[in-house]
UniProtKB/TrEMBL annotation:
Catalytic activity: ATP + protein L-histidine = ADP + protein N-phospho-L-histidine
Domain Histidine kinase: 42-251
Portion held of the full protein: 211 to 461 of 461
Protein name, UniProt field: histidine kinase
Phylogenetic lineage: Bacteria, Bacillati, Bacillota, Bacilli, Lactobacillales
GO molecular function list: phosphorelay sensor kinase activity
Subcellular location: Membrane
Organism whose genome encodes this protein: Secundilactobacillus kimchicus JCM 15530
Listed GO CC annotations: membrane
Length: 251
């Protein structure tokens, strides 16, 4: 909005209201700048770790590889692992920045066949059995490509963070849209933080062996918001986590 087209306040109350609005705007701009700074600093830090690992092991091979060829495969394995980690991270970052610029087209959609297809495709990739509990039809106004991505990411996590024998339950009913697993679940402290970019749950639990970047749920949250929906984490009974979603039925 051009400055000269802004309404000129005449009454003191209007001046006060405008000044409050202005301060709020300023605050949110500052907040955004601070978030961006924090984000760039996080990204740099997260990328430095695998790069240090790669460079260190390249140097090891250069120094000792000829004299001690037996160390080469191990060093190469580290380089391979760390470069894969970087690749995953960069792909997720691209997804995240893509999602933040995305304006999506939402259409009345039956979620049941959409989710059934994701479940069918994904079942082949994981050990756990995925059980789909669905009504005949669950209509919501969504963008189907992003909803597929959301379910894929949640299934991916359920697969990563629950035992191979555990059952993953996907519910697409008019009462509940959710993905549940029987893994270790998420502590209340972590529930508040797992949607943050780069946040990974306590390293003493499931994460000590599970690879990840901490970006998956940040992307999920952004995609859910683009669909004007919401997502929350509940405890699954008797164990595990349940990601519960709502999407608008209309508008
Ligand atoms: P990543 O899996 O790469 O660490 P995410 O953003 O997808 O990143 O998840 C953030 C954190 O939330 C994970 O590190 C893990 O601690 C926790 N988490 C996510 N999904 C689950 C789940 N289904 N069960 C238990 N913990 C989970």
């Amino acid at each position: 909005q051009a400055v000269d087209s802004l309404p000129v306040p005449t009454k003191p109350t209007e001046v006060r209201e405008l000044s409050i609005e202005f301060n709020q705007l300023l605050h949110s701009i500052n907040q955004q700048a601070e978030n961006d700074r924090q984000f760039v600093s996080n990204v740099s830090h997260e990328l430095k770790t695998p790069i240090a690992g790669i460079r260190g092991h390249v140097e090891l091979i250069q120094r000792h590889g000829k004299r001690d060829p037996k160390m080469v495969p191990d060093a190469l394995a580290v380089i391979d692992r760390e470069s894969l980690r970087m690749q995953r991270m960069i792909e997720s970052l691209l997804n995240l920045s893509h999602a933040s610029q995305l304006t999506i087209d939402r259409q009345p959609t039956d979620l049941v066949p959409l989710v059934a297809k994701v479940v069918g495709d994904y079942q082949r990739q994981i050990a756990q059995d995925i059980m789909l509990v669905a009504d005949d039809s669950v209509r919501r106004r969504v963008n189907s490509a992003t909803v597929e991505q959301i379910f894929l990411a949640l299934l991916n996590n359920a697969g990563k963070y629950s035992p191979p024998t555990g059952i993953i339950t996907v519910r697409v009913t008019n009462k509940e849209i959710s993905v549940s697993d029987v893994g270790p679940g998420i502590s209340n402290g972590d529930k508040a933080r797992v949607f943050e970019r780069f946040y990974r749950g306590s390293q003493t639990g499931a994460n000590s062996t599970v690879k990840g970047t901490g970006l998956g749920l940040a992307i999920v949250k952004q995609l859910v918001a683009l669909n004007r929906g919401d997502i929350q984490i509940l405890d699954n009974q008797p164990t595990g986590s349940r990601f519960l979603m709502h999407f608008p039925t209309d508008s």
